[in-house]
Design the sequence.
């Protein structure tokens, strides 16, 4: 667990059945940091994440882990380094939370090697970190949306990877649970030095929780870097096509985007 | 480490339920098997059955048990194992309890091939099995190709499969009607599945297929449990999704087709085994072995009921059909309700 793995995209192009969605992206996920990919709907941010995590093949360029193209790395070995929480994972009906989290141990298990004490410890650790230890023996169907998302994160934790990619981990959650999930991911990043990259919808939460922001439009990365530098009114107009002001978040002192819109605008810089 | 201890306690509790379930199923299977060997027009005591199995010559019993009842038992048990594994594999892989090979037309395809080969072309058992396998796989490919590109592949695949199955069943009826030598028991076998008149020498292919393929599926069931979480999660967990899926589908189709070529498409055994097994052993572990045992128990139990439960003997498929059809209706109603509300 060095937290020093490097995942890069090199001139990466990908898409669906001939339609290019990600168009020549070069990026490096900073090791041990939290990266967030933002952009308008259909800008290619989820597709980029899926290509980075080998769910979609690259149609051009490559995804490179520690200097080696991921297509050259056996998928099971990759699963020991690179974890992924998809947007809509499917829970088998009636499964106990501990057993679902235990499936995260899959890449650690061999054909005829049964479950070990190490697996139990990893599952307990993951449940504890995700704050769902007391739900271990409940079935997944009984849980709320926020609890479920924590359980899925616990499953990714049980996999014990140094890198974790998450595709919109806060969708379908109310604001309190969104903050809870992002706090949890920050905990992981700080305690385990896990490199985290995720797609987020909410630019303000992204600006608060990201160490490094990638802003996308039309399949390309328009700007990247520290949110303090990257999030400007110009960028918001370029990325979202929205007039907005950027002020300092009174809580975190990170950039806070305040959209102007056509109604209710009675103050601000240009009023 | 108290957390790990609690995790282990919960896991062993669920594992124990699973073990007990499997032991109970095994015991039930043994009881049913012995029952099948003892009961008949002439019933023999357990001692005679054991002596025949041990290879001793028991006047009367040796022929009845050795030549009639053991082949019937073996055919029923093997077909039940094969259907059970095939069904639960399909249901898990396609994440839908309706997606069993007997509901989506694959066993009907194999049945067409078998009836064509045996009743019309008079081919050997081996050639029949091979043809049934080929047509079964072709049917699966056709259904899959027709369902491709839909928003939700699962639902469309099942509807297309049910349609293809109905077409195939019509062809079976047509072929059976046209067959020169009209034989009710042969007809019943290809229409509903039957163990009547099965000979030991017809079972070779099915026995080999079961012995080879069931362990393969059991080994692959680790990957199957990851695939249950969706293709994306399975990939993230290091499963070679396409390879695992193709291997599992081919093995499951083969099991269903070999069984169909031997006993006919015993109705709904594939469809019922997985859900029943899940009820017995719980949802945590692999269903492959429990579903195999449930399948075998279902076929033997239904055959006993068919033979001795009524004034007239019914083929096994009639009995499993009577049990399975209401469950199919229930699932269809539930599915359309869920589909309507979401």
Sequence:
């Amino acid at each position: 667990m060095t937290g020093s793995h490097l995942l890069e995209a090199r001139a990466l192009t990908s898409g669906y059945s001939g339609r290019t969605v990600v168009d020549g992206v070069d990026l490096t996920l900073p090791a041990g940091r939290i990266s967030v990919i933002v952009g308008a709907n259909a800008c290619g941010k989820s597709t980029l994440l899926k290509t980075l995590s080998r769910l979609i093949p690259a149609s051009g360029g490559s995804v490179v882990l520690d200097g080696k193209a991921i297509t050259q790395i056996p998928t099971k070995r990759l699963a020991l380094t690179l974890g992924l929480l998809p947007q809509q994972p499917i829970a088998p009906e009636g499964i106990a939370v501990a057993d679902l989290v235990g499936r995260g141990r899959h890449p650690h298990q061999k054909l005829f090697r049964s479950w070990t004490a190490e697996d139990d410890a990893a599952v307990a650790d993951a449940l504890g970190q995700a704050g769902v230890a007391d739900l271990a023996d409940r079935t997944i169907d009984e849980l709320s949306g926020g609890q479920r998302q924590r359980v899925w994160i616990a499953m990714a934790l049980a996999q014990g990877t140094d890198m974790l990619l998450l595709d919109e981990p806060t969708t379908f959650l109310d604001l309190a649970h969104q903050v809870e999930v992002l706090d949890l991911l920050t905990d992981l990043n700080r305690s385990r030095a896990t490199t985290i990259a995720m797609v987020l919808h909410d630019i303000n939460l992204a600006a608060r929780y990201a160490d490094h922001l990638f802003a996308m439009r039309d399949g390309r990365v328009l700007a990247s870097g520290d949110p303090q530098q990257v999030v400007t009114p110009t960028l918001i107009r370029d990325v979202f096509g929205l007039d907005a002001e950027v002020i300092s978040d009174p809580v975190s002192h990170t950039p806070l985007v305040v959209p102007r819109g056509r109604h209710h605008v009675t103050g601000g810089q240009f009023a | 480490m108290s957390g790990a201890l609690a995790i282990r306690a919960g896991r062993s509790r669920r594992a124990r339920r699973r073990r007990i379930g499997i032991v109970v199923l095994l015991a039930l299977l043994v009881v049913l098997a012995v029952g099948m060997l003892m009961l008949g027009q002439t019933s023999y005591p357990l001692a005679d059955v054991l002596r025949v199995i041990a290879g001793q010559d028991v006047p009367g019993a040796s022929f009845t048990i050795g030549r009639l009842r053991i082949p019937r038992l073996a055919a029923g048990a093997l077909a039940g194992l094969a259907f059970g594994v095939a069904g639960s594999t399909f249901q898990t892989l396609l994440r839908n309890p309706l997606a069993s090979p007997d509901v989506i037309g694959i066993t009907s395809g194999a049945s067409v091939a078998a009836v064509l080969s045996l009743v019309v072309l008079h081919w050997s058992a081996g050639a029949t099995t091979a043809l049934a396998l080929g047509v079964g796989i072709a049917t699966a490919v056709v259904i899959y190709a027709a369902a491709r590109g839909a928003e939700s592949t699962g639902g469309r695949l099942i509807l297309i499969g049910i349609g293809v199955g109905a077409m195939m069943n019509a062809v079976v009826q047509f072929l059976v009607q046209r067959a020169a030598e009209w034989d009710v028991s042969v007809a019943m076998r290809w229409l509903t599945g039957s163990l009547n008149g099965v000979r030991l020498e017809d079972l070779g292919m099915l026995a080999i297929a079961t012995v080879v393929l069931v362990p393969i599926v059991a080994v692959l069931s680790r990957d199957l449990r990851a695939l249950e979480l969706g293709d994306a999660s399975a990939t993230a967990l290091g499963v070679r999704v396409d390879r695992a899926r193709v291997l599992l589908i081919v093995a499951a189709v083969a099991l269903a087709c070999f069984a169909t070529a031997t006993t006919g498409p015993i109705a709904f055994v594939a469809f019922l085994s997985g859900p029943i097994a899940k009820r017995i052993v719980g949802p945590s572990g692999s269903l492959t072995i429990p579903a195999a045992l449930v399948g075998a128990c279902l076929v033997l139990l239904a055959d006993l009921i068919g033979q001795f439960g009524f004034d007239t003997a019914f083929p096994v498929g009639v009995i499993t059909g009577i049990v399975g059809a209401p469950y199919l209706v229930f699932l269809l109603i539930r599915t359309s309700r869920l589909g309507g509300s979401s």
